[in-house]
Amino acid sequence: MEFSWEREAALIEAVLWLEADPLDEAVLARIAGLSKDAAAEALRKLEERYSQADSGVELSRIGGGVMIAPKKEYWETLKERYGKKNESRLSKAALETLSIIAYSQPITRSEIEAIRGVQADTMIRLLLDKHLIRETGKKEAPGRPVLYGTTREFLQFFRLESIADLPKLHERERERFELSERE
After folding, report:
1. Were 9 and a residue from 17, 42, 50, 81 both cysteine, which residue would form a disulfide, CB within 3.0 to 4.6 Å?
2. What pLDDT is stored for residue 46 in this prediction?
3. What one-character DSSP code corresponds to residue 167?
4. Measured between alpha carbons, how far is 180 from 144 in angstroms, rounded to an integer?
5. Which of 112, 123, 174 is nearest to 145 (CA)?
6. HSE on the CB side for 52, CA within 13 Å?
7. Residues of the chain under the 70 pLDDT cut
């Protein structure tokens, strides 16, 4: 089958519609049977098409992958019906714990507790169960405590391409996430 840029873009678009999770460009190219360059060009064409005012979707880059998602400007209207349902909503305590991990990773349970001022075992278990955080290793300290960091699912849940896309903290907020005894 001979391809043109339009047909390649249409093929890539079809693959993205069928996939529920973000795909990196190499995997996308392999699934579509295209070269990496052809897949990259097809994605560029799709981004161009989706940037038009009459499109309600965009290519969203999340955790090194790409997926088709509603434009951010429409998401507030749509998320109640199409977003994460009630079982995926996080409590204030879970969000606080997750924020500490996201901004301070890698971080240990005791460091999280020192910042929050309360025990974190339940919240850590909940966030692990939801695959929003994971064990990233062990700290080189007595007892070798477990270090926690965020996951690709965290990026997808918050529609971030990378951890660098987290909102910047103001000075006062940044101080809250720091521990004087952390090395």
Report:
1. 42
2. 95
3. P
4. 20
5. 112
6. 7
7. 1-3, 83-88, 171-183
* Fold adopted by 5-81: Arc Repressor Mutant, subunit A (1.10.10)
pLDDT number for residue 161:
86
Domain extents in the chain: 5-81, 86-176
pLDDT of residue 180: 45
Give whole-number Cα distances, 7 to 13, 41, 68, 152, in Å.
10, 12, 17, 30
Q: Which residues contact 4 (CB under 8 A, 6 or more apart)?
A: none
**What would the DSSP string read from start to end of 35-101?**
-HHHHHHHHHHHHHHHTSTT--EEEEEETTEEEEEE-HHHHHHHHHHHS--GGG---HHHHHHHHHH
Say whether the peptide bond before residue 106 is cis (omega within 30 degrees of 0): yes
Residue 51: both structure tokens together: 């940037």
- Asked whether the domain spanning 86-176 has the same topology as the one spanning 5-81, the reply is yes
CATH 1.10.10.10 fits 86-176, yes or no: yes
